Amino acid sequence: MIYVRNAWYVAAWTQDLEVEKPLAIDLLGEPVVIWRSQRGDIAALENRCVHRLAPLSLGRCEGDKLRCMYHGFLYSRDGHVSEIPGQDVIPASAKVKSYPVTEKHSWIWVWMGDPDKADEALIPPAVGFDDPNYILGRGHFDYAAEARLISDNLCDFSHLTYVHANSFGAGDDFAKTAPNIAALDRGVRFSRWITGTAGPAARSNDELIDAWSSYDYLIPGVLLMWSGSFKRGYAEECKYGPPQDLDDAIRGVTFTSQAVTPMTEKTSRYFFSWGPHVKHGDEALRDILMGVAGQAFAEDKTMIEAQQAILDKTETPRVLPSAHDRGVVMFNKLVERLAKEERSVDASAA
Ligand code: FES
Ligand SMILES: [Fe+2]
């Protein structure tokens, strides 16, 4: 399994990290505990007490410290043990790994690589609940599958036609047309016009529109997409490039942020939000969209977990790429290149 380590991984929705309630999550196979102090500061440590390896996530917050509730070792935010009950001397080895952690766009992000390289500028520009332009809902699903299979799914929307025939109702358009695909520094951009379509949001079949959608799939596995419906002929006016102005949309402008986090080799957590632009909807529409998303993402989960089960029964899995795999291959190659660069830096430093 290949991962980019020098990247921010989504570990939780901000709203799910309650004050003084430590949260446990495996990230890239490492047990991590994250907690928020009364003051609001967050910290992330290896979730494994140095004493007898109990999970610190069962611990108690004390000020900005965390106490293991097995035998009482007290941990500072940097992972050092600052108190061992009944013992005056604290050995230098009494510490656990600490991770750079930050909160942005309503997600808690953990940096899994070299702490000296943790750069907040590398956090993907998701849209959080603090953005006044969107009315969002949120959720997450746990997968019994390798994260890469979910990334592959998100880099090839031709599956919408089949997997989501009963939810997004994408029609044949997604399977029969290719998106425009462009390489980004740390990701791949997929965009497309579907012209003269009724569109899932159409009020009647004779109200044809040009539907635009564009998403970036970014390292380590974050999808940011906005969509909108424009008057028929608008795509041509834009020479089939991006809309000149978001305000030109006649309806249906929405934004979704999604993140795929590898927990262990074959388990992953998939976070998602979706909702309308304030000019194009309200809480009621948000709830409808979230209902559709919940159904659609459950469809992906069913397919991908079943795919994982077959992969597990296959001695040497081989794939037969199709034309729609272009973006999948681009993203996987980017992951391989960045991971390789990290390994060569690590090797030369060793
Ligand atoms: S296992 Fe944590 S104090 Fe003993
Ligand atoms: Fe899907």
Automatic annotation (TrEMBL):
Pfam families: Rieske (PF00355), VanA_C (PF19112)
Alphabetically ordered keywords of this record: 2Fe-2S, Iron, Iron-sulfur, Metal-binding, Oxidoreductase
Residue ranges constituting the Rieske domain according to the UniProt record: 8-110
Gene3D superfamilies: Naphthalene 1,2-dioxygenase Alpha Subunit, Chain A, domain 1, Rieske [2Fe-2S] iron-sulphur domain
Protein's name according to its UniProt entry: Rieske 2Fe-2S domain-containing protein
Organism lineage: Bacteria, Pseudomonadati, Pseudomonadota, Alphaproteobacteria, Parvularculales
